[in-house]
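Subject: Protein record for review, amino acid sequence with C-alpha cells
Why sent: The fold of this protein is of interest and is recorded here as C-alpha cells.
Enclosed: The protein record, placed directly beneath this head.
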Amino acid sequence: MSANNNPNGTDIRAILDKQRSAFLEAGPSSAAQRIELIDRAIGLLVDHEQEIIDAVAADFGHRSKDFTRVTEVLSPLMTLKQTKAQLAEWMKPESRHTDRGEAWVQYQPLGVIGIVSPWNFPVNLAFGGLAGALAAGNRVMIKPSEFTPQTSELMARMIRSVFAEEEVAVITGGPEVGQAFASQPFDHLLFTGATSIGRHVMRAAAENLVPVTLELGGKSPTIISRSADFKTAVTKVITGKMHNAGQICLAPDYVFVPEEKVAEFVATAKAVLAGFFPSLKDNPDYTSVINARHFARLQGYLAEAREAGVELIELNPAGEDFADQAHHKIAPTLLNNPGDQLKVMQDEIFGPLLPIKPYQTITEVVSYINAHPRPLGLYYFGSDADEEAYVLSRTTSGGVTLNDVIKHVGVESLPFGGVGPSGMGAYHGHDGFRAFSHARAVFRPAEGPDLMRPPYVEQVRQIVGSLIKR
C-alpha cells in the first residue's frame, strides 16, 4: 500500500484482519517456517543494498553512503542472521521449578505485531523489529516515517516483492495514517520515536488494551571522569556525536567534564574533529539534518543560547560558510555550560550540538542526572572502579556503555529499551523474541490430596498445619 493510496483506518484494519485470519488458520509456525521468512528479509537487504543507500541519501539530502551501508544494510542483516541462528533454541519450552508436579513456560506467537519505525534509521529499525516479530512466529505490519518518503516507498516495494500481504505489510503515509495505524487492535505495538509522539501512541493503544514497547530516546548524559584517558574519551564522544550528525536516539546529548579540563576538552574536540572531517560542507562523510523543520529547530537552540550569553564553539576546521548550501548541514557546535532553562538543555537535541557541563565532584553529576528524566543511554569514561560502581548503582537509564558511547545497542544479546520517559519494554535478540511472544504458563500437577477442596478432613488440617511454619 503506497502513500498515494492515502489509506485510512478502515483500509489498515482490513489488512490487520486479513493477517489475523491467516495467522489463526495456519496455526503456530515451525522453526523452519520462521527461518524461511527471515531468509526472505535477509535477501531483500542484500539484493537492494544500493537502492537502500540511494533512497536514504535522497531523503536526507545528503548522508554518508558508507555510514548507511553499515547502519541500514549490514547492521539489520547481522541482526536477522543472529536471530535465525538462535530462534530454534528460543522456541524450546522453559522448565520451571515446582515440587508439586511439572511446570514450564511455552512461548506462543501473539498474532499481528504493529511496528512504527522512525526516520533516523528507517531500514535498520524497521527490519530490526521485523526480525524479533518473525522469530516469534507473528504476522507484521510496518508504518515507516513520512520524513523519509523515498525509503519508505522502497521498503514497501521490497516487502511486497517477497511477502504476501497477510505475512508482512508496509503502510505508508503522513501523520493521519500514523494515528490511524496506532489506533488498531494489534496484539503488540512497537514504537520508536520522540517521547511527545510516544504519549499519543500509548494513549491510542490503550483504547484497545494493546501492549506496547516504546523506545523514546531522551537526553543521554556522558561523564568523563578525572580517571579517564582524556584524549581517548573526547575522541569517542565527538565521533559518537557525529554519527548521523547526532541524529541518533542514543547520541551523547551533553557531557560532564571536570571544570579544570573544559579548555582541554574544547581544544581536543577541535583537533579530533579536524582529523576526521577536515572540511564539512561538501564532505561526503558528513550527514545533513533531515529537513528544514529540524534544521530550524537546531538553529533556534543556538540562537536562544547565544542570546543568553552562552559561549558557542563551532568545530569548523575549514572555516566554511554554511549560509549558502544545497542541504541542511550544521557546523558541529559545543555550548559551554548552558543553563537548564534553555531548550537545548530541556529537549533531546538530535543534532550536532553538544553542551558541556563542568563539574567538581561525581556526586553532583549523579545528583544532576537523577534530577532529570531517566535517559535511554548513559556513558561513563574512567578507570576508577569504585566511581564506576557508584555511577552504575546510583543512576537509572535504559542502558550503559562504559568507556565508549552508543555501542551497547549493537550487542544483540542485551535487551534494548528505555525506562520512564525514555521508554518501556525492551527488544533485540532473545528479549525481542520474548517481547513479541506470549509466555504461557503450563502446569501438570502431581497426584496427591487437594488442600483447596472440601471436606477439610483431619488429614488435610494436619498437612496444612505442618506447612505453616518459619
Remarks:
- The radius of gyration is 25 Å.
- The first helix runs from residue 9 to 26.
- The chain has two domains: 3-216+419-442, 221-410.
